[in-house]
Amino acid sequence: MKEDKSITLLEQPGLNVGYLSFNTEKKPLDNLKVRQALTYAVNKEAIIKAVYQGAGQAAKNLIPPTMWGYNDDVKDYSYDPEKAKALLKEAGMEKRLLHRPVGNAGTASVQPERAPYGLR
C-alpha cells in the first residue's frame, strides 16, 4: 500500500507487544540456561518481516516504547544461534523434545527456528 500514490497511509506507534513467556516452575524451563538459549534462538527481525510485514520493532521488555515506564536500558538478547546451541548443551538439552502449544502466527513462525538446535 505504501507504493500506491492514490492511498494516503497514516501510521502511528502501537501499544501491543508480542513476547515469549516461560513457566519457570517446571522443567526444563526452570533452568536459566534453557530460557536464555530459547531467547537467543528467536530471530525477532525475521518474525517482524514474516508476521507483521515489517511494520514493527523488536521488543526487549514488556512495556512498549510509547508508554510511560519503558526502559530502553533493559538488555536485549540478540539472535545468536551458536550461543543458543552452546547454552542448550551446557543445560543437557541438546536433543530434547519441547512441547509448545501453537497460539498464533507469531508462535508458528518460531517453530522452524528450533530445528537447528535439535528441538522439536
Q: Mind telling me the CATH class? A: Alpha Beta
Report the total helices: 4
Q: What percentage of the residues does DSSP assign to strands (E)?
A: under 5%
Main β-sheet description: none
Cα-based radius of gyration, to the nearest Å: 17 Å
Helix content range: 25-40%
The total number of structural domains is 1
**Helix/strand class:** mainly alpha
Family: Belongs to the bacterial solute-binding protein 5 family.
GO molecular function, one term: peptide transmembrane transporter activity
InterPro entries: SBP_5, SBP_5_dom
Keywords: Signal
Summarize the SSE layout with pairings.
Elements: H1 32-40, H2 44-51, H3 81-90, H4 105-110
Keywords: Signal
Pfam family, one: SBP_bac_5
GO biological process, one term: dipeptide transport
Describe the overall structure.
- Residues 2-96 form the Solute-binding protein family domain.
- It comes from Raoultella terrigena.
- The chain is mainly α.
- It has one domain: Dipeptide-binding Protein, Domain 3 (Dipeptide-binding Protein, domain 3).
- The protein is built from four helices and no strands.
- The protein is elongated, with a radius of gyration of 17 Å.
